[in-house]
């Protein structure tokens, strides 16, 4: 299960302090030292950990906590609040354009789960929000990517707009919006090309698509299992494209949690959805509060 190591360590650290009727500064210092180590071991970004620990200490050593009737529990509440805030506080919603269709651009490295997530998102928009999305195949460099999206479209009984591998991705994106308007589709989900690494050609193409279709959302899909790499990828995509949110995939796997806990702090962009499996209904809204409770038990 995701976060297992982190959850175990934090929970045992917390147990030591929860029942205390009196908490000393020394207790708080010991606890934060252990929390710090647990977070670093879970591959949370170093600077993120440093800032977080500073905030926890400031609040936990404050008068309100130390002089409360249940200081141990108050300290834990501080840790939980701060973890939740770290992951983005309130859960954020998906945009709706003033004029249909709402355009969502999906970006990310190859293998992160972009195509699968495009299908999952279309499924979720239809099922939960009663929308009718159009999926768009813009990865012209890999015929397999187009086939994959078309297969997903068949499984979902959802239309896929494709112009094959010879067309220009910017044209495909542009024409897909016309198509969506003609067919009264209210969401357009553009599955863009992925590469193994962030490179200039890819970014140029994505920027051109962005300036042409003016998307309402740009979702970066990153693989939670890749930890710090996911955070670095998020930073570069955000610098180049000013993304609007992140979808963290493979949270059903054995991830240590570093990406989930660092991305919002590093990019200041919210994690909007979490991929919880390979199936097309395994995409969930990301709830920082639930995730924080899960980690702290
Ligand atoms: P893309 O290259 O970014 O388009 O990635 P794909 O959509 O092809 O996904 C790559 C692999 O990751 C596929 O085998 C997917 O089934 C798998 N995958 C995607 N999302 C998830 C997820 O949330 N959990 C798990 N376990 N696997 C996922």
TrEMBL record:
The keyword Hydrolase applies. The chain holds residues 1 to 297 of 447 of the full protein. The gene is ffh. GTP binds at residues 108-115, 191-195, 249-252. Part of the signal recognition particle protein translocation system, which is composed of SRP and FtsY. Involved in targeting and insertion of nascent membrane proteins into the cytoplasmic membrane. Binds to the hydrophobic signal sequence of the ribosome-nascent chain (RNC) as it emerges from the ribosomes. The SRP-RNC complex is then targeted to the cytoplasmic membrane where it interacts with the SRP receptor FtsY. This is Signal recognition particle protein. Composed of three domains: the N-terminal N domain, which is responsible for interactions with the ribosome, the central G domain, which binds GTP, and the C-terminal M domain, which binds the RNA and the signal sequence of the RNC. It is found in: Cytoplasm. Belongs to the GTP-binding SRP family. SRP54 subfamily. It catalyses: GTP + H2O = GDP + phosphate + H(+). The keyword Thylakoid does not apply. Its EC number is 3.6.5.4. Residues 270-283 form the SRP54-type proteins GTP-binding domain. Keywords: Cytoplasm, GTP-binding, Hydrolase, Nucleotide-binding, Ribonucleoprotein, RNA-binding, Signal recognition particle. It comes from the Bacteria. The lineage of its organism: Bacteria, Bacillati, Bacillota, Bacilli, Bacillales.
